[in-house]
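User: Can you write out an input/output pair for a complex, sequences first and structure second?

Assistant: Here is one pair. Inputs:
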Amino acid sequence: MPEKVVINVKNLKKYFPVRMGLMSSLAKGEKKFVHAVDNVSFDIKQGEVYSLVGESGCGKTTTGRLLTRLEDPTSGHIYFHKKDIANLKGKELKAFRRNVQMIFQDPYESLNPRLTVFATVAEPLIVHHVGDTIDEREDLAAKALEAAELKPASEYLHRYPHELSGGQRQRVAIARALVLRPEFIVADEPVSMLDVSIRSGILNLLLELREKYGIPYLFITHDLSVARYMSDRIGVMYLGTLVETGDTEKIINNPHHPYTRALLSSVPVPDPYYKRQRKKIKGDLPSPIDVPKGCRFHPRCIFAKKGICDAKDPPIIEVESGHIVKCHFAKDIPAMDETAEETLEENMELGDELLREVMRSSPSDEESMEKIEQYEHETSF
Ligand SMILES: Nc1ncnc2c1ncn2[C@@H]1O[C@H](COP(=O)(O)OP(=O)(O)OP(=O)(O)O)[C@@H](O)[C@H]1O
Ligand code: SF4
Ligand SMILES: [Mg+2]
């Protein structure tokens, strides 16, 4: 039976106008734009965790905000259960918002310090006119808190955010996202601001909720080990475009796009006694305002060919079923040499091993804390 597609994104674009001084815009006579999301297409199936990974500024959050319609797209389509929601307005937009929720990176910022846990979790119920009485709303809020494993809910309902730990606040944010029983959740770096020792609890909770309710997630992360742990499929973004997408294990074990390979080889080796150096991707990330012509990755790509890569936008090529690569030479890039392949394998294994250690560790144990600090320091781009 074909899997049901919940979200289907087609040629999605978001350009932000750049604020220029009056004199410089008059002098140049042109408007400039940040190409935050530029022609991105992918889909997310029922019960699936689809992760977006990539360097800072590549457009992950903007994509998440577009899918929840916190941003209006410049152009393109977002089909939610086959209905295009890209240009919804008014009542229809409000109805759509009931079905999708976003969990943000920073639970310290996303919760209003003046609202109790009950007021925070019940707010979406009031906005969407769910529950007729305060008792009914309290009951729904309590159920959502218990689903987020804040048990018994009565202990939390009347507390304020400053009376909670970081992990508990993120659980309140998750309960708030759950209270309307959404059909789709965007989780934007939901653990990156939390102490490493409590990250595993939140990640496992998100996976359990997926199991229990079949909710699909767009999961945004800059941490490849976390993406591997969480996702069924991964999309790799570079400078506003999706350069490779496919099943998690295919992306990790058989990456085709030169950028994905570079990204995987640059996953740090977390053992300080391990001599191999982290391989840095050459050059700096170009500006999303003046994006390079042709393939956006060409100024940094070791396989770039003059006259092709710097001239033409690469085609989208399916290298194996469901594994899609945006590169002129997706099928011809030479197989990785043994050293590169070994480095990649070792890096991923060590990253995984450390992630597992971190997940098992307790913050009271000094040795674990050292590992956690090391992990935090080493596992981001
Ligand atoms: N409201 C805005 N106005 C102008 N530019 C914006 C706005 N929001 C995002 N951008 C720009 O769009 C680009 C993509 O930003 P985005 O926040 O989506 O990246 P990201 O991949 O989530 O990065 P990070 O990993 O740092 O969170 C960046 O160049 C950013 O500066
Ligand atoms: S299209 Fe050319 S520059 Fe771009 S990733 Fe492929 S080989 Fe490299
Ligand atoms: Mg972001």
